[in-house]
Amino acid sequence: MASQDSHAQDNIKQRILEYHMMLSVGCGTKDCPNVNCASSNGFITLSNLDALRKAIVLLQNQAPVCLTHAATSTIASDINDECDPTGVIALMLSNKDAVPPRLSEVFENVSTICEYFPSRDSSQMAANMFKAILADDIVGTVFSDVLLPAVERIRLELSDSSEPPSEKPILAAWILLQNDFFLDPTSHNVLKQLMIGLASTSVSTRQTLISWFASNSQEDMSRVVGIVQSYISVTWALGPRLSDLAHATKFLGIIYEANELSTSPLPYTEFHNDLINSELDYRQDFAMFVQRPNEFCFSRHAYILDAAFKSNLLQLDASLQMRTQFDEAAMRFMFQSSSQVPSPFLVLEVNRDNIVADTLLQLQGKNSNDFKKPLKVKFVNEEGVDEGGVQKEFFQLLMRQLFNPAYGMFVFDEDCQMFWFNKDSFESKLEFELIGIMLGLAIYNSVILDIRFPLVVYKKLLNHTVKFSDMKTFNPALHKGLVQLLQFDGDVESVFTRTFSIEYSLFGEVKNVELCPGGSSIALTNQNRQEYVDLFVDYTFNSSVATQFHAFQSGFEMVCGGFWLQAFRPEELDLSICGSPVLDFYALEAAAKYENYNRSSPVIVNFWKVVHELSEEEKRKFLSFCTGSDRVPINGLGNLKVPFIIARNGPDSDRLPTSHTCFNHLLLPEYSTLEKLRERLITAIQNSEGFGLM
To answer: Catalytic positions (predicted)?
Structure first.
């Protein structure tokens, strides 16, 4: 049985390799009719990692593969052998039989690797040499046997915790990780041994690795991340082996931490694994996290998980806490003669005309466990069961009032299209606390808020340190001015004529704020300008709005907090609260429901034709017109909490389409022609304005 499983896995590996070759190199047939072949007309070149991801999808779909592949030995001749200190490329072109012994010499041990590739700057040379070797199928087959002794030596040297590791085994490991050979599933045993050695080091050695890796180029870092991600994807596709996945995921974590320290980091999304996020059962992984604290699960390694997956974990954790509290309350009711029947919901009954005061009043006395219950909203003197639409309307009305500039709690920057705390707000801390609670409730109840905060708000919510660089997204013009101040070559004091104080106007009165004690009498000079910028940034982000933000954060942490919140990055917290700007209208079409129409109705066929032809800006306006927000839930338009419904609104007429944004409900007359539908729909969306939520 074991031999059959092994044979099946070998077949899968071979198929993945064939698909990868087809996508990367092609079959050599000019204008190949196979659209998945690199030799086909119009084929878009893929990176190695993207080709591997595509190969796994093609395997799952049993897609056809070209029977022959182009000879690739010519790749070696395209690489300048003067850039190869090992002489391997020259041997490949003159005496191929001498290549394996030469490779054995080069990769005999750590010292020989470092002799030929003496610094991190040698990594591109190594990558080119590996590429040339892999271009020849015959030479490439010996690679595993050649590299394994060096890998074992690297593991041995890094495992000695009696003294700090030298740079040599780290450099040797980094050089080997530039090898695209590791994208080939047949090489994964060697790669696994290397990752085990790197991921199983002592704490001090791990920190040394992180520091060393952080100084490498973005290109090198990207190549290594691609190799590790390909290993994880293929290992998962072959049938998850948790021990193998654990070592790779932990090593990916080392690279992730190094990337966080890098001066030119990769996008954090490069560390998300698409296959894991799409196929892993988050409920099972959560159960593993809770029930088996000493065993590997992906939930302990948040960098590999995307925002949607983390949001599912956060909501699952809230449900678990809520169920525990409800069970305890039910037991008290049964055995302690409690007069109050416990409710499984957080129920708010509010008056539309007094929504802020009513909400504040009803939330007083609630504890954090109440906030983790599913929210149900009822408007006073109105019928209706809250199946999502009433809740959505409640958020829409409440947030519209709280964020109204006339209310005075926030200021809106027209240039950046962002809200920020009003440092001179007269509102009580309770209102800011309420907004924090509402943001937390929005996450737990999968409501997308149509508000725009700068990223620094989410950094502060997660207790991350804010820096001068955050000013760039907060206020680009101000950031540019401060950079010019720091780089100014002339005499700062005579040209800028400033002190360590800030003046601004409030209701016609000039206010002066000192950035430090006695700041009004401290002149800004070349010598102290860095201190001035640091104090200015701290004042802007922290001290000027400390009262407002602390109340806001306090409210948020009443609802959200702990391990699962800290698993989010600031960017992901923004996505969870305010949604994604990425639009997929085909997913919206697939999930749409109809009233007195169906998918085949001529007006519906015309409708989707028009919608898919809209520009990006028009699609956002359409989304805002129908749902109240131009943002998308992190699970996508195919997973709206309140389904998108298109309802017949009478026969053909000149009336414009209308909508109920709280219920994602579009009312569409049965227009007689495509042209009329297009004109009426575009007119409707171009003349609507919305402040809403999804």
So the answer is: 662
The size of the chain, in residues, is 694
| Contact in structure between 538 and 532 (CB atoms under 8 Å) | no
- Type of residue found at 348: L
Measured CA angle at 261 (ends 258, 262), to 5 deg: 85
Q: Which domains does the chain have, with CATH numbers?
A: 2-60 (no CATH), 74-262 (no CATH), 346-461 (3.90.1750.10), 585-686 (3.30.2410.10)
Examine the residue annotation and report whether 27 is marked as an active-site residue of this protein: no
Helix (H, G, I), strand (E, B) or coil at 435: helix
Q: d(Cα 226, Cα 50) in Å, to the nearest integer?
A: 9
Three-state SS sequence of 114-180: HHHCCCHHHHHHHHHHHHHHHCCHHHHCCHHHHHHHHHHHHHHHHHCCCCCCCHHHHHHHHHHCCCH
Phi-psi region for residue 28, left (φ > 0), alpha (ψ -120 to 50) or beta? left
Nearest to 362 by CA among 374, 383, 347: 347
CA dist., res. 272 & res. 269, Å (int) = 5
Summarised one tens digit per residue, pLDDT across range 198-236 is: 999 999 999 999 999 999 999 999 999 999 999 999 999
Neighbour tally for 620: CB within 10 Å = 18
CA–CA separation, 490 and 509 (whole Å): 33
Can you name the residues that pair with 513 across neighbouring β-strands?
502
3-state secondary structure (DSSP) of residue 49:
helix
Helix-strand-coil split of the chain, %, nearest 5:
60, 5, 35
Angle at 187 between CA 185 and CA 188, to 5 degrees: 70
Q: Cα angle at 623 between 620 and 626, to 5 degrees?
A: 150
Task: Indicate the SS3 state at residue 277.
Answer: helix
Average pLDDT, the chain: 86
pLDDT, tens digit, 9 for 90 and up, residues 93-117: 677 778 888 888 888 899 999 998 9
pTM of the predicted protein model: 0.80
Instruction: Residue 25: count other Cβ atoms within 10 Å of its Cβ.
Output: 18
